Batch of 3 targets.
Target 1
Amino acid sequence: DAGVIQSPRHEVTEMGQEVTLRCKPISGHNSLFWYRQTMMRGLELLIYFNNNVPIDDSGMPEDRFSAKMPNASFSTLKIQPSEPRDSAVYFCASSPTGTRFGEQFFGPGTRLTVL
Amino acid sequence: AQSVTQPDIHITVSEGASLELRCNYSYGATPYLFWYVQSPGQGLQLLLKYFSGDTLVQGIKGFEAEFKRSQSSFNLRKPSVHWSDAAEYFCAVDFTNAGKSTFGDGTTLTVKP
């Protein structure tokens, strides 16, 4: 399996622009997580889905952030409008059921810079 | 509130020395426990996990961890550190056994030659 795939790997944009981050989870995994990592705040869970349904979005910082999972193989995290304080590395992770339940498989991350 | 504490922000050890990274969590029941490693510029990778049974668990790369219920701890150990072990280490706890983990703030390991 190719693992969790994230695109783009790097994104540089200007304040006020819309940013869309994409994630393809590992096939067969039914949970998907979006995290944000910064030096100041560490690793923060933004939202997680189970069977494509958002279960907990309490970590989404504000209304500028939205996430969707239209099917089991694709998810997006959108920031509109973006601000410099959104600069961070955004990770997507997926998790299976069965014997490996609870173990999260992380993608390589998207490094976002908002100027 | 449920929390995960990694008391050491940064640890430096010499290559070949032993290593112990601490992790404590707040909760009464037995949660699911994980250690992840993050190399620079990479995502997190699972080292090992504990769900039940033997409280000493073995993981990849020669790491092990011991669950101590009385101390609410899940410390990570390695008998002999290699330079390639330099990375950031995260303890994670699934308090509700529902598949969602709370991560500690991480411990950065530096390995001296």
Target 2
Amino acid sequence: QKEVEQNSGPLSVPEGAIASLNCTYSDRGSQSFFWYRQYSGKSPELIMFIYSNGDKEDGRFTAQLNKASQYVSLLIRDSQPSDSATYLCAATNTGNQFYFGTGTSLTVIP
Amino acid sequence: GAVVSQHPSWVICKSGTSVKIECRSLDFQATTMFWYRQFPKQSLMLMATSNEGSKATYEQGVEKDKFLINHASLTLSTLTVTSAHPEDSSFYICSALVVGPGELFFGEGSRLTVL
């Protein structure tokens, strides 16, 4: 069983819509969760992290964590074509081991 | 966010030669760095965990004698691909852990092409 699972997509949304990216994890001891964006041919860049149950908002991005369901999501409001990328979810328990999902490919259609 | 720099960003070498890739944390000290490899349209694959002052921990299936990792200081880890072959051509990415917040930041990546 993979530690972190994501739907590989591709996910397509029209410009201006809300994109919803989902991630589940298997280790109940996971403490912190991260969302990274990776453009083709580039390395991942950190969008935001979350470690408390509930929502965390940063600009157009909202991360949601539900530890009981072992579920993390990322919402992108007012999606732009520049948001088209692969989004990686990661979880860590000790802070020394990070488990990445395989990523979800998002395409925002103008 | 914290800055992690990788060098070189692109390298082409002949088969049989060795290539060194550097990963530096520019504005923080990183006791732990990670090395990944990523083939086109595939997900990140963790190769090894590098801890300052100690031997790296390699993932299963990664040859430690082929991929030499040195983490001699709190701001620098190096990956040396020894006797490189065309199948080693890939995108190599390092990341560094910021202790405290526990955030992980990635370098820009190094694209290796072995002819």
Target 3
Amino acid sequence: NAGVTQTPKFRILKIGQSMTLQCAQDMNHNYMYWYRQDPGMGLKLIYYSVGAGITDKGEVPNGYNVSRSTTEDFPLRLELAAPSQTSVYFCASRHGRGNYGYTFGSGTRLTVV
Amino acid sequence: KNEVEQSPQNLTAQEGEFITINCSYSVGISALHWLQQHPGGGIVSLFMLSSGKKKHGRLIATINIQEKHSSLHITASHPRDSAVYICAVRSGYGGSQGNLIFGKGTKLSVKP
């Protein structure tokens, strides 16, 4: 049981490039989340999804896009990368609407230069 | 003012010491989570609390809903406990869909 798998673990992008951060879970969780973690700050929610075909913006969505075509996958797309998007990105999932625990991926460290 | 405040921000302890990390929050919550993040590593869920107290090995988490306060205790601390400990609360109301609000974390270093 792999849990939440994020790829890649590290990436360096040049300003203006685009990339997709991959997130997959094998626990049949309905809810999935993308967070970013900046030094000295708490994690901030970028986008979330409550099921296949349904996504919504979080606190800091600008510069990002997501899709949820299957229950398992929740990719995060960066268009026109900017230095402000240098961060560590975490994907997480949980089962449903009630008080269920969260499972986090191992993170993607992204640097935009 | 942040909705979730943790103290202390940094904590250095000697191996074997009893450690307490505090979390205060200002919003109504349905659950509080304690998470652990090792340097360069992923985030692991330690506890989810909505009332009372939970224990797992040397870790104990308590919550006082009336005072909007939670504590994470580590007994007989060990260098492998060195990590960042994160408090997060789930509002769970309305359109938030259970989104978490995170504290900034407490960086714990346990010296041998």
